[in-house]
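User: I'm putting together notes for a lab meeting next week and I want to include a structural view of one of the chains we've been expressing. I don't have a solved structure, so I'd like a prediction I can at least talk through. The sequence is below, exactly as it appears in our construct file.
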Amino acid sequence: MTTILGINVFALLGQLLVGLINGSFYALLALGLAIIFGLLRIINFAQGALYMLGAFLAWLGLQQLGLNYWLALVLVPLAVGAIGILMERTLIRPIAGQDHLYSLLLTFGVALILQGAFNHWFGSSGQSYPIPDALKGGNNLGFMYLPTYRGWIILVSLVVCLATWWTIEKTRLGAYLRAGTENPQLLQGFGVNVPVMISLTFGFGVGLAGLAGVLAAPVYSVSADMGANLLIVVFAIVVIGGMGSIGGAILTGLAMGVIEGLTKYFYPQASSTVIFMVMVLVLLFKPAGLFGKEA
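Assistant: Thanks for the context. Below is the predicted structure for the 295-residue chain, given as C-alpha cells.
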C-alpha cells in the first residue's frame, strides 16, 4: 500500500530525503557560521561565496589538474581554510573590536567580489561535476530508493558536525576556544597564542563551507550564484538555532531541511519561505533563538 489517508508514502519519503540532504548542507554551513560568530564574534557574510569557491576549486582541480573527488574532498577544504586565514589576517583583524556591522559589510563586499569574478570568468551557466564511480548507483530500502551519493552526503555531514561539536564542547581545545572569546588577555597569559588560534578557528569555519561545496558539486550545478540564495537561508537557520550555538546550528539545519521537504509535499508554494516564517515565530517568542542564551 503506497497511499495512507490520501498521502503518497513514497512521494513523502522522497521529499523527506531531499529535505535531509538539503539539511546536511544547511548544517555544515550553519555550523561554520556559528563557530565564527560564537567563538570570534565575527559575522561572516562571505560563507556562501566560500561554499561556491569550494565547489569551483573541486571542478577546476578535476578539469585542469586531474584532481579526483577523493583528493578534492581533503585538499579543497584546506585551501578554502587557508584563504579564510588570509582573509582574517589582512581584512578582518584590522577592524577587530569594532561593531559587528563592520565585519558584516566587509565580508559582504568580499562575497560580491568573489561572485562577480567567477561570473565574469565562467559565466552564469552551471558546470557539471561527475559523481565518483565508487558512489554511483543506489540502494533499494524497500520503502524507497536511496542514491548512494546522497547517503554519503548525509553520513559525511553528520560525522563532521558531531566531531566538531564534541571537540568544541567536550575537549580542552574547545575550552581554550571559548576562553579566548571571554578573556583573551588571560588566555594569552597562560602561553596560548590567541591571534593564531583566532586565525585557525576562522579558517576552520570557512573550511566547512569549502567541504560543503565539494560535497555539493556532483549534486548541484557548479555556478557563481550557487551560494548567494543559500546564504540567506543559512543565516535564518543560525538565527533560529541561536547565534553562536554550535549544537543549535547543527540540529536546526537538519530540522529545517526536513521541514522544508515536508512543506514541498503538503504545500509546495510555501517551501521557499517556510524557514523564514519559522524564524519570525522564533524571534517573536524567543529572540535569542531556540538554543541561544539571552544577552
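A couple of points you could mention at the meeting. DSSP finds eleven helices and four strands in the chain. The chain has a mean pLDDT of 88.

User: Perfect, that's what I needed.
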